[in-house]
Amino acid sequence: MAKGVALGYISLLVLIPLAALLTNAFNHGLGAFWSAATGTESLDALRLTVTCSLLAAIFNAVAGTATAFVLVRDNFWGKAMLNTIIDLPFALPTVVAGVTFYTLYGPLSPFHVNITGSWVGITVAIMFVTLPFSVRSVQPVLESLSLDAEAAASTLGASPFHVFRTITLPAILPALLTGTGLAFARALGEYGSVVFISNNLPYRSEVASSYVYSLVSSGQVSSAASVAFVLLSCALVVLIASNVIARRLARRRG
Amino acid sequence: MKRPSLALRCLVLLYVAALLGVPLVFVFQQAFSHGWAALWAALHDHAMDEAILLTAKVVVLAVPLNVFFGIGASLWIVRHPSRISHVLDVLIDIPLAISPIVVGLILELAYAQNGWFGSTFSKLGWKVMFSLPGIVVASIFVSLPLVSRQVIPLLREIGDHQEQTAATLGAKPTRIFFTITLRSIAWACAYGVTLTLARVIGEYGAVLIVSGNIAMLTQTLTLNIGANFENFNGYQGFVGALLLALVSVLVLVVIGVARHRLERKRHDSFA
Questions:
Q1: Are B256 and B264 contacting, i.e. CB atoms less than 8 angstroms apart?
Q2: What angle do CA B218, B222, B226 make, to 5 degrees?
């Protein structure tokens, strides 16, 4: 009985709407799907989204690993607060981040920096939203990592960078990859934080989710479903690929 | 590298301060920029107050439903694994991979007037899209996995020895659930509930499509902030943003405490 309720809940919520997406994307045939998904505006939006998401995910992978290092191995006044504020992007609504970034770095910027309508602004907004992912995936692995091997290596004369590259990095790499994959997938669909700073100029600064929204508002539901299908497939491929590679890396280490 | 250098610490602090600290402080600065009297007046903006009320209604309806579902599904997946529960385990995480805009779109495709179930629903007199039920469904969708992702790993870790012992001694399933299972997953639940709450209050893209975004009627607080901002009423927008920022600071504190407790529990169970 309870199991039936759970299955009904998930079918009504996830399965049936996903099936509706599939049929709407393909109900005018493969040709219509293909022309909607690969139109110039769609391709430009998808390319911009993937580029900015990848940039932000890579930057956050590096900066997030550094942050996790400082949180686990360093000790200073205010560290607990740093550890708490890392989760801010999970707690602060995306629209608040969106309007704040637009006001901070838009035409009325108090710093006289205007990055609206460009890939820079979009990437900054995505960096904000995806900041916690790599930190929170690397942090627990670092905590459970024994310091013996690192100490031995440095006693034998290895430089700190060499120790990091040959001992620490291989240990955290699977977790880092999973976290970066999650961040990348999240970034691909991001809307609220990006839509204000991007200015939504078609062919120039319109991200994929924003293009889907404009199609929905102008009543082109089938085209919207086609682009949405491509976007969703990209996110799923990223998630599955990063998980598979991470699992393989972890297994090779034994 | 036993302890990171001072330079790395400063770089990290700079990065977090620039990306997270500056925007958070800026929201407060903007909301207080016109003084207390203006802030007090802006807090009594009629459209914003209606929006706050609607967001509160959505929270009251969506969060408990997802918490019940999250705990129930976790118990099923971990304690009674079967082929169907594996499928559920995969399905439950899908919302994390879907863009909020796409969530709104697919709910519309399934449940709007001209969608799959639109005609059936309108015959029954139900209006799902562009009204409260649609907003609740969208909020449930985007926050679906947040409880189970916290509870499932913990349930796996603690095992079921205590539950089995209690059952052998004759305890009824409900008693076992409340005295043993629920007590051991309490902090994971608190963590998941808080994340769910934050996500439901903060959802923008999915609700934007599903609600129709009509002021005083189907506008949640996040939509109200966006609308004020687009209508060149940035100050009013930042007053709404201030309220949400205050909520998010509270959320951060609860998340911090819950994570600390969970880590301690993990250490204890290994010791």
A1: no
A2: 95
- For the segment A189-246, what is each residue's pLDDT rounded down to a tens digit? 999 999 999 999 999 999 999 999 999 999 999 999 999 999 999 999 999 999 999 9
CA distance B190 to B176: 20
Q: How far is CA B225 from CA A98, A109, B134, B203, B213, in A?
A: 10, 19, 20, 12, 11
- Asked if the A29-253 domain carries CATH number 1.10.3720.10, the reply is yes
CB atoms within 10 A of CB B3: 12
φ and ψ at residue A192, rounded to 5 degrees: -55, -40
Name the DSSP letter for residue A165: I
Rounded Cα gap, residues A179 and B106, in angstroms: 27
End-to-end CA separation in angstroms for chain B:
27
Instruction: Look at B96 and A189 and tell me if their CB atoms are within 8 Å.
Output: no
CB neighbours of residue B72 within 10 Å: 17
CB-based contact (8 Å) between A203 and chain B? Answer: no
**Is A228 an 8 Å CB contact of chain B?**
yes
Query: Is B2 touching A (CB cutoff 8 A)?
Result: yes
CB–CB contact A63 B15 (8 Å): yes
Residue stretches of chain A with pLDDT short of 70: 254
| B158: amino acid identity, one letter | I
* Cα-based torsion angle of the residue sequence B25, B28, B34, B38 in order, rounded to the nearest 10 degrees: 180
**How close B61 gets to chain A, by Cα (Å)?**
15
Q: Which domains does chain B have, with CATH numbers?
A: 44-270 (1.10.3720.10)
Using the predicted structure, report yes or no on whether residue B271 has a pLDDT greater than 50: no
Cβ atoms < 10 Å from Cβ of B2: 10
Q: What are A40-57's pLDDT values in tens digits? A: 999 999 999 999 999 999
Q: Residue A214: which residues within 8 A CB-CB, separation 6 or more?
A: A200, A206
Residue in A236, A193, A243, A170 with CA at minimum distance from that of residue A56: A193
pTM here is 0.94
Q: Is there a contact between B141 and B206 (Cβ–Cβ < 8 Å)?
A: yes
Residue A103 · residue B234 · CB < 8 Å? yes
Rounded to whole angstroms, the Cα distance separating B209 from B142 reads 13
The predicted-structure confidence for B95-144, as pLDDT tens digits, reads as follows 988 999 999 999 999 988 777 887 788 788 888 888 999 999 999 999 99
Whether residue A125 contacts residue A190, with contact meaning beta carbons closer than 8 Å, is answered with: yes
